[in-house]
Amino acid sequence: MPTTRKPRPPKLHRFDPVSNRPVLRAADIVTAALKLAGATDIDALIADLRNPESVAATKLKTIQFTEAQLDLIDRYAGHMRLLRNKPTVAINECPTCGLVWAATAKQSKCTLTRDCDGIPAKSGTAKRIAL
Ligand SMILES: [Zn+2]
Q1: Is the pLDDT assigned to residue 2 strictly greater than 70?
Q2: Of 49, 64, 83, 111, which is most buried, counting CB atoms within 10 Å of its CB?
Q3: 42 vs 4, 11, 86, 89, 108, CA distance in Å?
Q4: 3-state DSSP assignment of residue 96
């Protein structure tokens, strides 16, 4: 008797941020989502996701976002608008004065706040981990 083949459920993934600080972790996740979806920025991504048939919606279908990740992205929504894909624009955050700015490279010192001796950290791209 032939066995009926059940369609395999799609493999699920999650995004694992590579940074330590909250705003940078949010940026890591958004950057990974932009790259996977092929969207230029978060506004384009959200617009694409409104259409369930879009490439972005299809590509992100297998990503499981946690409640905490969505809260984090929501909390830093303004900063997430600085991020770009193709070419990549990341954000730098100075841990001393707390300023966040768009940057394509990590800067070795804080140049935005006078006499601030903070060393900025740059956001990266979250890793895609199979669940
Ligand atoms: Zn600073």
Answers
A1: no
A2: 83
A3: 42, 25, 13, 12, 27
A4: coil
Pairwise CA distance, residues 106 & 84, whole Å:
15
- The Å distance, Cα 104 to ligand 1 centre, comes to 17
CA of 96 to the centre of ligand 1 (A): 5
Q: How high is the mean pLDDT of the chain? A: 94
Dig out the tokens for 55 from the structure.
Answer: 């490439």
> Separation of 107 CA from ligand 1 center, angstroms?
11
The more confidently predicted of residues 47 and 7 is 47
Spell out the domain ranges in the chain: 13-130
- pLDDT value of residue 9: 76
Whole-model pTM? Answer: 0.91
Alpha carbon of 108 to ligand 1 centroid (Å): 11
* CA–CA distance, 101 with 116 (Å, rounded to integer): 15
CA 38–ligand 1 middle distance (angstroms)? 32
Q: Kindly state the DSSP code that residue 34 receives in the 8-state scheme.
A: H
Interstrand relation of 100-103 and 90-93 (parallel, antiparallel or unpaired): antiparallel
CB-based burial label for 116 (10 Å; 0-12, 13-18, 19+): middle
